[in-house]
User: Fold these one by one.
Assistant:
Number 1:
Amino acid sequence: MSALTEKQAVDIVCLKCGIKLTLGKTTLQYLGTTFPVELYKCSQCGLVYIPEELANGKMQQVEASMEDK
Amino acid sequence: MLHEHPGGLGLTEQLIKLCGFSPGAKVLDIGCGIGTTVEYLRDVWKLQAIGVDISETRLVQGWNRTPGLPLLQAPGECLPFADATMDGVIAECSLSVMESAGAVLTEIERILNKNGILAITDVYARNEAGGFVPEYKTCKEWQDILLQHGFSIRCWEDRSNLLPGFLASLIMEQGILRLGLESIKKVKPGYFLVMAEKATREDE
Amino acid sequence: MDQKTLREREARCIQGNPPGCITRCPIHVDVRGIVDSIRKGNPAEGFALYHRMVPFPRIISRICDMPCQQGCTRKEIEMPIFISALERFCVNQNHTAIAITVLPRKDKKVAVVGAGLSGLTAAWELGCKGYIVELFEAADRLGGSLWDISEKMLPRQAILDDFSVFAKIPLKIHYDTRIRFLDSLLADFDAVYATIPLEMNEFRLDATAEGGIKVDPVSLATSHKKIFAGGSLRSPIRADSPIALVAEGKKAAISIDRFLQNASLTANRENEGLSNSLLCPSTKGIVPVSMVAAADPVNGYTKEEALQEAGRCLLCECMECVKVCEYLAHFHKFPKQYVREIYNNLSIVMGIHRANKLINSCSLCGLCEQVCPGKLNMGEICHQARQRMVETGKMPPSVYEFALRDMQFSTGDEFLLTRHQPGHTTSRFVFYPGCQLAASAPGHVKDMYLYLCSKLTGGVGLMLGCCGAPADWSGNKALFQETMQAMQDTWRSLGAPKVVTACPTCYSLFKQYVPDMPVETLWTLLDRIGLPDTKTSTSKKLAIHDSCTTRLDAELQESIRHLLEKMGHSFEELSLNRKNTVCCGYGGLMFLTNQEVANKVIDRRIHESEADYVVYCSMCRDNFVGQGKQTYHLLDIIFGSTAANGALHSPGFSERQENKARLKRLLLQEVWGERMEKENNDMKLIISEEVLRIMESRRILIDDVKQVITHAESTGEKMQTAGSGSYIAYFQPANITYWIEYEAKADGFIVRNAYCHRLTIIPENGGRK
């Protein structure tokens, strides 16, 4: 179960560390609330990848749901 | 990776601390899912923790993660344990999704030892002008049903601040429409933590 | 907003109140609804509405005296709607049996004396309520004086058909029974309704001066608690009004029902009977059309005739503000309801704030107040609601963030500029062009400043800055006050000169919040001192769009007309002009909070006239040009830059910021001979039109892109999809995280994509990236 779909399991390389990104636990925060999400990230330096569809889709839904409260 | 319930293992830790089980205590996690809590209780707190869940799919996921986890398939209304064999029962966000909380509580009371502990974290309906959702019990309804089934409440705490983060995680996983959240928005649920003790004859 | 204010505001909105045809009907038949049903081709619905109130539809629709017509707005135009004929049409169309609901039987007995319209109505209503009713009638048939009406007007069969409903209730009828004394009735019945003259010497019922029985007009009670009296007994005049008799019967039934349940006879009965409507529909521009006459009056309207007469109905309601405001129309309700929603929104302690969008989409322009009979101002309500939300921490940060960030730029070092005129150490005037004119037409700022310097003596200073309108409109009182204070301090530092504003919004805010500061608009000033000597290119006819923030400033509006005349331009007025002008979509930051409504607003406005528009606010110009309308700012005409080519460009967000910064540098250099150290941000970006459009819609500035790329290139923190040449990098300068996909080339960076989000990524080690 992941925030990403299978389609988005692309090959992305972290150019700083020279290694491929793998799924890992990341913490997101907004308006004082933190929550964990599974995202592709560099296991070495922690650089995270958020695809456009996620940013414009579910992340926007989360933002809206938290703002209306 | 994701929290299985609001508060995740952080909240489980708080709950266990309140219960004060000794190492080796026999504790049942009811609605254990993929067994994250059972594993945690065994590894970190050295409890003899077992889990039951009605979903075979989730249990299989749990065994794939950690082979050999003591998980059983059973409904909450019919627990495969003899009377008075458990020191504690934990129900994290599981009673509210079971068909009959009353029947489950009867079973829990049966399998607990004298002075056994029941620890629950779950959703409740906060009274407010927005309307109500019948599936969510209010604080009073929770307390009443626990009392009716032979438990005395030692500790009740509100943990509603954990809900927004949990909701956010759910949306990230499934998207807002899949959850049908638009209609549930009519009421703002709360989240609570309760530690109750099986009442002895003298207490009643 | 407290409860009291809520009710006061709700009361100002008269929409939802019934029109005159309903309020002047003694039994409040939904006349408007019936006429509307006919227009919709649904006479069955019309019949249902009619029969809900009228127990004898076939009779009443033929003989009703129509007091409702006194309340018909068309009465003022030519003739009221022929309402009973339309009702009769619905009755004629009905062929299904009328469904009746009779409540469970009660063990109380009521006697009704006299089977005229009033008595029959009372008997019917009480019977339906479950009471045991006995009707005493001297004749051998029901209906009283109905039988005196001509057969042509009231066919006997109609009477019989209507009265056949009495078979459906437990009603015992005593024909050929004349009651003269009530004592026997009082023994056997719990209540009596008398509609015929009674002997006075029995109960010593209180009498009126004229010798009739004293009857309470609200409840029809007499001085004997069980006896109620009404109908033709009470007033001979009433006997001529069938509908009044029906109303009387209903009134008696209500009174008896209450009496038998020990409830108050008089409480909450204000709505019974006639009243005037609170609506005041306008008759302006309605073409007189004569009433439709039935070709066959005996049988009534045909379908075509009914449709035609129903077509004359104005379906009276208010909705004056909704008619002129796309924002009010967009949410499909009307102000009375909106006010309640906003009140609820502000009262919620925890829960979903459903009305946030409603509150944040209003342009605050106040047009509604100008057209509302009750002078309700939605802008005032929304503005206060926003302030409350900000105070209580309920304003979602994303709503106004971009506007406030833009304002921050306009009050920051890259734009702020304060100078006396070159060669002067004091200023008698100061030119305050405003931030949007600088963003959109920086050249005009310079040209006008130089002109003012040449024309006015005593020194003309210059102040570049922002008056704080975005802070005010977003409900951020503290920030607004801070900004205003800073502006005032700067103004004082120049020696408190007279402020000349080019922007109507700056002008209106200064006048409202800094009344001690002498301020004048550029336009009234130019009207006085004269225009620069530039030849205007064409003298085509222009339509004037007045600014909404100065809707009440008639002098300013006049000066605009004078200036156009002086420049040889003919102009036309739009129908919503001067104090009734519409906002262009910039007001209240609508174009940022609700693009959808803003587009509707702009679209409607630009189609009001075929002519090109002239405006005197830079944002009005940009908003109209942005949707393809040829619009000139007054300065375009004054400085002769009305060439058709290149005119239809509305600068995007990045360009606006760049223009502001460049204007400051330009003025310092060319007017004051000072060189400003420019931030070395010489990164060359290559961005296609499509990506620019995407950035614009996502409110991503070129500056933001540069920050991400700079961060990525300097830290090496970037990613790459296997097999692609593009880099992916992200950076969070303040609240928003920007993602850029780009390629590095020898001569610059090609930007392939840009997106952003507000959820913050928390790095593992806890620090902020």
Number 2:
Amino acid sequence: MSIKHPKTDILIIGSGASGAAVAWRLSKSQFNVVCLEQGRWIKPEEFPNEHSDWEIQARTNWAFDPNVRGLDVDYPINVDESPIDPLMFNAVGGSTIHWTAHTPRFHPSDFRVKTLDGVADDWPLTYDEVEPFYDAYDELMGCSGINGDPANPPRKERPMPPIPIGPDGERMAKAFDRLGWHWWPSDSYVNSTPYRGRQACNNCGNTGLGCSRGAKGQTDVAIWPEAIQNGVELRTEARVFRIETDAQGRATGASYYDADGNVNFQPANAVVLAMNGIGTPRIMLNSKSDAYPDGLCNSSGLLGKNLMFHPYAMVSGLFQDGLQTYKGPLANMILCQEFYETDPAKNFVRGYTYQVARSSGPISTACGYMFGRVPWGAEHHAEFERRFGDVTVLGVIGEDLPEEHNRVELDPKLTDSNGIPAPKVFYKLSTNSRNQLDDAIENAVTALNEAGATQVLPTRFLKVAGWHLMGTARMGEDPNASVVDRWGQAHDADNIFIVDGSVFVTCAAVNPTPTIGALALRTAEYIDNKRADLKS
Amino acid sequence: MTDYQINLTDTDRIVLKETMNLILPPVDELPGAGDMGLASNAEELANRIPKYGLATRRVLDAIALDPSARAEGGFAALDQDQRNSALKTLEASIPETFDNFVDLIYIVYYSDERVHKRIEWRTGPLQPLGWELPPFNPQILETTAKRKPFWRKA
């Protein structure tokens, strides 16, 4: 059975960080907007933090990794050729349900790495062009922080003061001060005060498991209610499998499966793709046609290529002062950007950020999420007590550089529960990234020792660390060397836009979501201001 | 997730319980994990999560095949040192599987309220109580805020 819906002006696919931003911005325009989301609404009482077994759920039906969750609403990912497992969530809000909401911005230099350091490519836009959209997205999602960071350009007053950095954060901050290294309270989309009808955070810890208080910037609570009130239709359990095009290669809409397995067609004047850096190329590669024999808008041959993660290392410090380091948002206290820029004396280009993180509950402690698995047997109980609530982690976010061999393809056999081909990820850690991580580990050991750690444990490389999915439909001025232009509009079709991390040219050494959201708002403003032709 | 039935026999259950006592032995007033009655919780979770089910099945099968455990009385009849030795041999031979099995035992143990009480962890959901933390104090910025801006112009 096939169902055809009335035509809309703008069809957005994906309701996460970027799709919601576009929907919200266009809800203030004259466009009719429909958004298709393969997941469903999650009710506050469903979040694990409302349940005693939250630590079990974090490892099973609420795991970051869709291959572990294995829910029908997820799609599997073949990671046989990748040392990093991609992480994501499928629901209204997308991966903002699951993220820890640590929200630093790109630096101005991040948009100019070719010019400054002779590697990768420059972006076709500048920090100054993106800045007003950073401000708008910060306000929309609710940003806690404080101005004055010497490692970043001055910025508008943050909507809320910083969240507490806690005694563990202060301990690390003082260590950085003694070393003469930079640190600053992290900008976070975690409410330090009540904000726009949402409660303040009460420091329960596990921001990565969804927030039933609405204290975290998830688009299901921070953006969607207003967008829907303004008239956007958000259609859930709608799993898109193909972007349809006409003979000229312009989008005509999208085909999807509904919850009953019926094929639906949603016609539209324009399609905005917001399914993340793996989901978007997956569906574009699955949308081959006579106009696009190699995948939708792939005349450059770059669709799916240049996949960037942020390869992570972490260095854990064990302290013996009983600070109960499980109290407070898991990954939001302070950051250090002392080593952010290229240092010619080192054996790598570009740099890294330290994101200082906390520990978690007893199961995480025993199973070693932050400090290695506690040994079993006679030593177990003493060792558990030594570690529980006494670990601080320096997470390393290094700037990954784009390489064409790192890519997303369609798996020839693996499919999701509707039979749509699953993505297969090919990724190799570069020597540059490895050298970055090694340098960061060495410096982190210094910092943790300065802070008074009695034992330091480096984890050289995290497998379950594919939080940031970027680069697979890159932005650029040259249609032969990029998939979309500076507005996120496909070079090959003027009514197809991409707004998620796929468009990143380079990935900086920071969490990407504020940049994703800012670019999405910028694309939406372009559509509103310049593309009246897309209104029926 | 699909169910994976590990189909434990009564003998398996005895071995599982004894193994849990070795992995998490008695401490203070608490008996070992097996004697706390947590083997059924482990079995339930192993049936629910394939990773843990496969690990449990494989570990129990491997113990049954261990020559020392095939003597009269089986694994349960071995003394403590012999059992520990058997488990350490197993850990060395199938480390990833064994780690998953240990994780399973840790998960059920550290989900138990008696354990929470002993380690002084507030049992139950994280919400709605959360945790108290002192509010951010800007005085902590005194040193770092004095630094001149050093971001790279572009």
Number 3:
Amino acid sequence: MREMVLARLIALIQALHRCTLYAFPPSFRSRFGEEMAEVLSERLATAEEEGARAVVSLGAREFWQMPAALVRLYLYRWKKKGRRIRAFVSQVRAQPVFGVPPVADDGRFSTGQLLLEVVPFLLAAIPIAWLTYRPLPWLPDAGRTPVDAAVFWSGIPPALALTVGLVRGMPRWAYPHAGLLGGYTLWLAAERRQIWLWVTLLTMVVGLSVMAAVVHERGRPLPPFFRRLGGSVGLDWTRLSLGVFGAAPWLILAAFDNAYLDGRTPYLGLALLAMVLTVVVYGRRGRQERQLAALLGGATLLMVPAVMDHVYWLGSLRAVGWIVVLCVWAVALLVLPMLVVPVQWASNLAPLGSGEE
Amino acid sequence: MEPSAYLPLREPTLFILLSLSADNKHGYAILQDVEALSDGRVELSTSTLYEALARLLDQGLIARVEGPAAADDQNPGRPRKVYRLTPSGRRVLNAEVVRLQGLVATAQQRLRAAGSC
């Protein structure tokens, strides 16, 4: 009778052990599962000779230690996976881009370059401020708001400037115009409820750019025009972030969508000032991380007045959620170039780093 | 990777490597040896043992090879997997022993100094 109970206890422990093996990762199970079961059987056979107490003790130890072993095993695998992903990312980012023709100095620390970069933001800030604080009664189409009137014409200058920039191989000053134009098209698409079309077009542009990069990397080098564009981005990935920041005027317009009604809010002026100062600070930074920090700080700073404005007029924080969402999107888009542009592309910056500050 | 990168070793890991330093062993023999080496203090479960073996295999400190089939095996005639210490595993084990020796020497020195006061 006692032997039968002991045999059933052993069978139960073995069955439970086989079940708990399913908690282990499949690859581990297929590699060691049978072996573990065999070793347990041998140990149980030895314990059986020592009596029921030894069998119970062995079973208890098996199941008591298993959770800790599982935690260690999964932690080790996750850490290893993390290491693999990090190694893969650094490998991808370290890939040199062949065939990119040498690009000109990016004009960092040049006053002329800085002025050219600030001009589009000033050209956007001045009319926004003017139309908000000093509305012009003679504007055509009285039914439209000043913002609509400004919006209507605001796509042309950045489009022209961007065309010139493209022809000249996208120097740094041209990037904000791309952002301005992007913001313009997004604004129109949202107004005419064609945001899906805008998203589709943007996805196509991004997809084609990725395909072009892959073709360039693995197949034939692209025509010189595209190589110059790649070289321009490769010289300094923060240029893409600056391009994203180019949409800041539209961000401000969206955040202060009712500002023209009251016309007295000082917060809009503060946001515009923060935007222009951000570009100045960006232009004077010598290191990419500082340039990015300037843009991130600027994006956050220009949203703070928007939040303060809403709190002032509405008296609560309830309606500022969408502004925070806008800010989060802006920050994510500003950081994105750092993650997608290979580090090696920016190797040309090395001599410039030594001359900073 | 440098041996010091693996240090300090967890106690079961140290005993497993120590067990394999003498000769190649299969899982059950390792368990018995670890128990004997630690005077019965360290009793590993199969999950703890195989979790450690999997990690050590992955780190290249031990290797898994086909061993001779045991006569009293439950599956007679089928060769069992045995584990052996690799040269890098031996280096790690030596480094850990040196580390422990240093630790013991420091502790003894301090205790002697404290005893003489």
Number 4:
Amino acid sequence: MKLIKLISGLLLSASLMSATSVLAADIMAEKAWSRAMPPTARVLPVYVTLRNNGAKDVSLVSVSSTYGQAELHQTIMENDMMKMLPVDFIVIGSKEQVKLAPMGLHVMIKNLALDVPTEDNTLPLTLNFDNGETISLDAKVTRTP
Amino acid sequence: MKNSTLISAILLCLTMILLSNTALAKMPILKGIGGDFTLKSSKGYEVSLSDYQDKVVMLFFGYTNCPDICPTTIAHISQMIKTLTPEQRTRVQVLFISIDTDYDTPEHLNKYLDYFDPSFIGLVDEREKIDQVAKLYHAEYSKLANEKVTTEFKKLSVDDEQQEQKGYLYSHSAKIFIIDTQSRVRGFFYVGTPVTDMKEQVISLF
């Protein structure tokens, strides 16, 4: 019993520590939004601006969401053809910013586990970076970003 | 000598300004692209391009399981439509042709487009019929093959999971076709085309 308490205590401190590390982090995420989609939609896009204040390049390697399976994608235009390709990671150069925005890099959520979020609600996301940082945020669901 | 260079430069600038204005004011009639078609529509009845001879048609290809390109294109066109007067709006018809004949149905297109703009009409039909229309508009599409792409920002990995998702990864035309009241293709817009330019050109075709 005591051991369980100890373990819970340790876990709690660990989570608190990780929460602190987010505050002291190199990466900042802002202006997260998801385009409001019809209730029948099977995929959701999410966009966010990432800023790297650190001295080293950092990559966004995965995204998780309670809404479904999140993937990193990029829209590419080649010879007047548009296509969307999965990407393994998105590099944010040191002291640089990368904008995930329509017709470019974006997060796509598929295999939806929850109903399509309605306009003016939020869509929770967790961004995982290769330097160990994680950022949890609520993307604003809107028609007009 | 210096003067003649200066004069040439001024002339060149003037020509460029004139040319760009002409291009904006007058959309050419494009030959060898376009043509009439009849497809099932989201409104429950069959639709032919020739049904819209009193309207300027904005036509584009896409599919509803597309999270980025298609909703962005729809939002962009919708933004332009909102800048028109109610009278002008009655003279424009937006047509969205689905290339995802495996998943999209007229009913599904109806629910999808209704959310963005109920005046938009979605078209989908047998694959062969969609293929014919895509060919007419030089808008061939394909389900994405397992191609590897490597750039600074992306590295595509090919695994089983990706094989599964191929079904909704399509490569398709980025063009928004502008068709005049005589069903002739007059030009193309893209998501990057400023709303004011789109508006001006559409109105010029009324």
